[in-house]
Amino acid sequence: MSPLLIRPSTPADLPAITAIYRWNVTHGTGTFELDVPDAAEMARRRDEVLGKGLPWLVAERNAQVLGYAYANHFRPRRAYRFCLEDSIYLAEEARGQGLGKLLLAELLARCEAAGARQMLAVIGDSANAGSIGVHRALGFEHVGVMKAAGWKFDAWRDVVIMQKSLGLGSSSAPVEAP
């Protein structure tokens, strides 16, 4: 098997990113989005994240993008600037191979190096064992559940919130960066 490469995304990755997200919107509960965004919207979202100096990574094997991960500010207000939220999406055929864990580990390292102090996982569906397990394996702690927060595929879906401190976490004042 060829080695997996985790690297910053490029505009050339957008067709694959859009296809991966399309599958996750139409088949998964990890996102509560109901309408599939087009490539232009995905490009806008990527540009927004990169414009904040935050990472948007892809996992690639044999020149095929198998998944992607990015971090964005948890909320838009300035006080949240050291608290990020991760998003990870995998192609259907890439699930269960450890790619999500590798992507998340690299994302965490880059965000910590950039000065972020907290990472949140806002996980769609309390039955999303894969995402919950990956986050737990990388040191995230369960901090809450929003019960029946979304309606998708004719069922109420919970939202699981997990959190991990990065670097010094809350033990000291941050150095301005994010």
Walk me through the structure.
The chain is α+β, with helices and mostly antiparallel strands. It contains four helices and seven strands; from the N terminus they run βααβββαβαββ. Strands 1-2-3-4-5-7-6 form a seven-stranded mixed sheet.
Brief rundown of the structure:
With 178 residues, the chain is α+β, with helices and mostly antiparallel strands.
Give the proportion of residues in helices. 25-40%
Helix-strand pattern:
EHHEEEHEHEE
Distance between the termini: 37 Å
Strand adjacency order, main sheet: 1-2-3-4-5-7-6
Total DSSP E strands:
7
Mean pLDDT: 96
* Helix vs. strand class: alpha+beta
Shape: globular
Q: Compute the gyration radius: what is it? A: 16 Å
Number of helices: 4
CATH fold category name of the domain at 5-122: Aminopeptidase
The major beta sheet can be summarized as: 7 strands, mixed
**Multimeric state of these chains?**
single chain
Beta fraction of the residues?
A: 25-35%
Q: How does CATH name the architecture of the domain at 5-122?
A: 3-Layer(aba) Sandwich
Name of the top-level CATH class of the domain at 5-122: Alpha Beta
Provide the low-confidence segments as ranges. none
Keywords:
178 residues; alpha+beta; Aminopeptidase
